[in-house]
Design a protein that fits this description.
Strand content of chain B: 15-25%
Number of strands of chain B: 8
Oligomer: heterodimer
Order of helices and strands of chain A: HHHH
Order of helices and strands of chain B: HEEEHEHEHEHEEH
Largest sheet of chain A: none
Structural class of chain A: mainly alpha
Radius of gyration of chain A: 24 Å
Number of helices of chain B: 6
CATH architecture of the largest domain in chain B: 3-Layer(aba) Sandwich
Shape of chain A: elongated
Number of domains of chain B: 2
Distance between the termini of chain A: 88 Å
Distance between the termini of chain B: 69 Å
CATH superfamily of the largest domain in chain B: Glutaredoxin
Chain lengths: ~120, ~170
């Protein structure tokens, strides 16, 4: 009886950890697929698209996750095949630094103007 | 004076926006992925079209020649237009053509080859499209040139034409 109890506990523990791992993998898969652009129906993510290309990419991403590849490694694989544009969120590199720094510069520039105006009004 | 200056600035900015949008809207917004200078040939196992046996990519590309990989399907209309050119290209003995049958029904693909001829020295099957992704393709037809160092050196999206055939011949010279 005791042995049976131990077996049930072990079984429950294994199935629980398995379902947790599956859930984690599914979350990661959705996150990655939502961040990949469909090249056939441009404007849609792979997650939303039903095209042949999208279904192939879904299979590939699934396979890569099961092989143990990390999110960044999967993006790197797709970037190598299709270029930076295939990922919605581009990485910071020499081609994209303007894209990343421009909003920050505009924010600082706008902030400086507002600060100057407030200071001017206070002086009046 | 100040009003005139403001008006001038507004007109200039609007004209600038108009020119930018006019130019940008005239450009095609269909993105075609640019292949890196050279992409290494993927390593894979694929089912052979005739024998249905899995073969390793190293075995497929084992010879010291230029390889042309052509992704095709019997349901793909542009593939029919490029087929006579592939037949012509297959006469060149310094290259080997490998066909990658993309998401196709085997019977239809066999009928296609029977009807239009077989330009390929070997055909491999890509039932789920994942093999094409390994090559960096996103549709049919697409054609890749693989050099003697087993690197993908050129990619052509869409059906090949006479101009592309000339380009291929120039590359493999």
């Amino acid at each position: 009886m005791k042995i049976l109890k131990i077996f049930i506990i072990i079984f429950l523990f294994i199935s629980f950890s398995q379902s947790k791992a599956d859930e984690k993998n599914n979350e990661l898969k959705s996150k990655i697929l939502k961040n990949i652009r469909c090249l056939i129906c441009q404007g849609q993510s792979i997650y939303d698209s039903e095209s042949d290309f999208a279904s192939s990419i879904k299979l590939i991403v699934n396979r890569k996750i099961n092989e143990g590849l990390k999110e960044k490694q999967i993006y790197a694989f797709l970037r190598e095949k299709y270029g930076d544009w295939v990922i919605y969120e581009p990485e910071l590199n020499k081609n994209t630094y303007i894209l990343w720094l421009l909003p920050l510069l505009l924010f600082l520039f706008g902030g400086a103007i507002i600060y100057k105006n407030i200071k001017k009004n206070n002086e009046k | 004076m100040k009003n005139k200056l403001n008006l001038f600035i507004i007109i200039m900015s609007l004209s600038f926006c108009f020119i930018v949008f006019y130019k940008a809207l005239n450009n095609s917004n269909i993105y075609k992925p640019k292949i890196k200078a050279k992409l290494s040939l993927p390593v894979f196992d694929a089912k052979d079209f005739n024998s249905n046996i899995y073969i390793n990519s190293e075995k497929i590309f084992e010879e010291d020649v230029f390889y042309i990989v052509n992704i095709w399907a019997s349901w793909c209309v542009p593939c029919r237009t490029e087929h006579p050119l592939l037949m012509e290209l297959s006469k060149d003995l310094s290259i080997k053509l490998i066909g990658l049958n993309y998401r196709d029904k085997l019977n239809n693909a066999k009928k296609f080859i029977y009807e239009f001829g077989n330009p390929y020295s070997q055909i491999i099957i890509d039932n789920d499209g994942t093999l094409s992704v390994e090559f960096g393709a996103y549709g049919v037809p697409e054609t890749f040139i693989i050099d003697k160092n087993k690197m993908i050196i050129k990619k052509f999206v869409g059906p090949i034409n006479q101009k592309i055939i000339e380009e291929i011949k120039l590359i493999i010279k």
